[in-house]
Amino acid sequence: MTAKISVADEAGACYGVNRALDMAREAAQDGVGPIHTLGPLIHNPCVVRELERRGVSVVESASEKPGGTILLRTHGVTPTEERAAHASHDVVLDATCPFVIRAHQAAERLVQKGYTVLVLGEAGHPEVEATLGHAPGAIAVSTPADLDDIALGRKVGVVVQTTQSRHNLRELVSALVGRCEELRVIDTICEATSLRQEAAAKLANDSDIVVVIGGRNSANTTRLAQICSTFCPRTHHIESSSELEGSWFKGAENIGVTAGASTPQSQIDDVIAAIGRLVGTEGVGV
Ligand code: SF4
């Protein structure tokens, strides 16, 4: 029996991540002074280590290592963090994904227009924190149950963490109907996220085992793993090929591989090659 390895139709690094990585790699070559990123540039520890080898290191606050060049992470920063970066560094490069900026601006406009603004996402996630920073008074909600603790106004506006699922958005919206007079929803879910989620569900449905590649701290990769496990219980979330175990693939004819939006193609290729060695299959079946 020859196992077939299939990759999801949409998988791996998205526009915003590739843009940020290009900016960091260019800064590593030609940047001014020491190069830092404000928080991890993306949620992928393997890539963060690769950037460190190129001389691009992570600081948790701009004041930690003043001078030189600082990159604002892909997930965005609060206006306070951005001001601090400009005050303490010679060069500030904004690697915030333009789609994340769109969510910041949507939340900001809703606050200005007097809506109670809800940000659907994970409280504490850097993207959600940055969006809250841009929209003073906005509140993070992760499930409809959170609404019980919030005094909603007459007008409620919703924006969404770019990596949330539409299922979660639909649940929140239906819970809000009847709790306010006016409900305005700005769907800021990123297309790259929804396409990867749909492709992952299809892949998992057709697979005996699924390997999901990406940082464990990556919200979108974790969500891909959750989606895959609902269709295929033999789903494994890994950060690199070194975590693969031969026993996972026992009896599997169809092996699915997908990867989060913060996983570069080189990491996907490495994992496919390693699976191929474990199961004695070369390349990817179509
Ligand atoms: S997943 Fe979407 S919002 Fe997030 S970095 Fe990629 S393109 Fe930007």
Layout: helices, strands, pairs:
Blueprint: E1 4-7, H1 15-30, E2 35-38, H2 45-53, E3 56-59, E4 69-72, H3 79-88, E5 91-94, H4 98-112, E6 116-120, H5 126-134, E7 139-141, E8 155-160, H6 166-176, E9 182-186, H7 191-205, E10 209-213, H8 219-231, E11 235-238, E12 254-259, H9 265-279
Parallel strand pairs: 1-12, 2-3, 2-4, 4-5, 6-7, 6-8, 8-9, 10-11, 10-12
Helix pairs in contact: 4-5, 7-8
Report on the structure:
- By secondary structure, this protein is α/β, with parallel strands linked by helices.
- It folds into 3 domains: 4-12 and 192-279, 4-hydroxy-3-methylbut-2-enyl diphosphate reductase, catalytic domain (Cobalt-precorrin-4 Transmethylase, domain 1, 3-Layer(aba) Sandwich), CATH 3.40.1010.20; 15-96, Rossmann fold (3-Layer(aba) Sandwich); 99-189, Cobalt-precorrin-4 Transmethylase, domain 1 (3-Layer(aba) Sandwich), CATH 3.40.1010.20.
- Helix content is 40%, strand content 19%.
- The chain contains 9 helices and 12 strands.
- It has helices at 15-30, 45-53, 79-88, 98-112, 126-134, 166-176, 191-205, 219-231, 265-279, and strands at 4-7, 35-38, 56-59, 69-72, 91-94, 116-120, 139-141, 155-160, 182-186, 209-213, 235-238, 254-259.
- Strands 1-12-10-11 form a 4-stranded parallel β-sheet, with helices on both faces.
- β8 (155-160), α6 (166-176) and β9 (182-186) form a beta-alpha-beta unit.
- The longest helix has 16 residues, at 15-30.
- The two termini are 17 Å apart.
- The model has no long low-confidence stretch (mean pLDDT 94).
- It binds iron/sulfur cluster.
